Every structure is written in C-alpha cells, then in structure tokens.
Amino acid sequence: MELKLLASNARYENPKLARLQRTLLDEFSDKNSRGILFSKTRRGTHCLYDWVNSNSELLRVSIKAGILTGAGTGANHMTQNGQKETIQQFRDGILNLLISTSVAEEGLDIPECNLVVRYGLLTNEIAQQQASGRARAMNSIYSVVAEEGGRELRRELINEYLESLTAKAIDQVQQMSPREFRHKISELQQIAVLIRIQAERKKDERKQRYSPGQAQFQCRECFLPVCSGEDLRKIENTHHVNINPEFVRHYRTGGQVSLERNFEDWEPGRVISCNKCGKDWGMEIRFRNVVILPCLKIKSFSLKTPGGKSTPKQWKDVEFQVKEFDFLEDMSSRFPDLDLDD
User: Fold this and answer.
1) E strand or H helix at 7, and its extent?
2) Spans of the chain, pLDDT less than 50
3) What is the spatial distance between Cα 144 and Cα 23, in angstroms, rounded to a whole number?
4) 212-334 homologous superfamily
5) What pLDDT score does 128 carry?
C-alpha cells in the first residue's frame, strides 16, 4: 500500500520517464505516427512496455506498443518467428510503437517510421547513425532521453561530432581526383606499415628488457620460488617447457590429460601441480617419444625481475626472451650420459 502511495506521488516521478512521456504525446498526437523506442536491455524493454500500457495519457493517444528483442531461448528472448510477426504488425500499423533493443538498429526499414527515441542508451557514433536511420518518414524526429549532463548525453554529443567529421571526410574523398585518391591510399598504407613496424620494435624491446637469468618464477598461489627464465624453452612458439631436471621436485603429477586431436611431435602426459599448495601448473608432454617435459601455464606463476613483481596473463607478456628449444643441445645438457649421435 505504501509503495502505491509513493508511486502515485509526482515528487517521486522519474524525470526521464516524464520527458519520454512528453515526447511520445507530442508525436502521437498525429494518429499516423509510428516510432521505435530503444532501450539497453531486454528487461528494460519489458519495463518500458509495462509503463506504456499502464500510462493513461499514452493510451489516450492510442499508442499500441510491441516488444522487439534478440532471438534466443531465455525468458526474455524472442523466437525468430516472433520477431518477424512483430515487425510485420509494425509495418501493417497494428502496432505503432516498437520498444526494442539494438536488434532493430540495423536493417529494419519502415518508410512510415517518423520517430526514434533512445532511452538512456550509451553507444558509439555508428550505432547512433543506424538508430537515427530507422526514422524514414518526412519530418522525422530523433530524440535522446538522458539525464542532463550525464554520460549518455555527453556520449551522444560526441557521436554527433564524430558523425559530422565522418561526413566531412566523405565529402573530401568524393572531391578527390582518381590520381589523388590512389596517392592518398598509398600514403595511408605506408603509414600503417610504419606504425606496425614500430609496434613490433617496441614489442621486441620489451622482450629484451631483462636477461632470462634475471627472471625468477614463483608459484602464484604460495609464492614458492621454482625456477628462472634460464630453465625455460619454447617449442614451436606454443609450448613453454622447463628443461631443468631439478624442476621435477617442485611439482606432483595427477591424472592423464586427454585431447581430441593427435600431434606429430608430442603427446599430452599427466597434469602437474605445485608440490606445496596444489596449484595447477599445466601438464607434462612427451616430446618426440623420447623425453617427458613439464609444460607450464604462465597464469600459474608470478614473475620477479629487477623491475619488481608481475603476474603475466600470457607468455607474450613476459619481459625476457624465452629461448627456442634445441633438441640436441638441450637434451645433451639435460642428459649428459645420453648418446644422441648414434
């Protein structure tokens, strides 16, 4: 009862809904109006649908609303047939207001649509152009309902500015001669190549920041020091293995790893985990059916360098160069009694 009293009090009215109501009343005073109201989420479309259908002022101007959301199997999803039926009802005038998620921003062409409203929706300039493009009729209205000074409104103003820049750029391109156009394309391609080369150089510099011996690995769970970068090798730029025979004392093995496909040079072995805390470290691999090597997950380790501690998410993020695995050299050092010349 108390909630009903609060809901009926104008002091607690949502100012955005009040603004939306005025916009809809202005446009739907014309009985031939049709509009699309965009909301961010499926739940939002259902809330707005309930609000429209319970609003006596909107019902007075004969607004007949329908919901259009993405296809799927969830509670708030629509079937593809449901989508097609709703769109057809909108085309035929049975519905005159679609309350939709972004699914209707692109590709929906209703020539009679004269109103597009974005309700508190934060998107980019492309989505803005697609949404505003749904209003096809003469003297169409594109409106944004957002908090004054809020980030949705700021984003919308940025979108308008970017749209104007895009229009200017297109106009400049269209005024170019074929020769000028080819020259500009060539110039941009050269700049792109230079940027890519510079990015690769920076990546290489990052890889050379420390020597392998300056990189110390610790278990990310219990911080047990386990190896240095000198102990690591990479195989086919994919597998990062530890070739130090002493490393085996830091881990214990678990169940056999099973993969759906077979590989030419290696096959999966057993799961490996920290001997102290049980943190998953990766798995053993049998390489060329000769040697078993621990293959490590970088996410399982923290890295200590002269620059401090880090927790890389991928091997490409480490700040030293992992050496390529050399079968003869590395196996000779691992197994000095092994005669690989026979």
Assistant:
1) helix 2-8
2) 124-128, 131-137
3) 10
4) RIG-I-like receptor, C-terminal regulatory domain (2.170.150.30)
5) 47
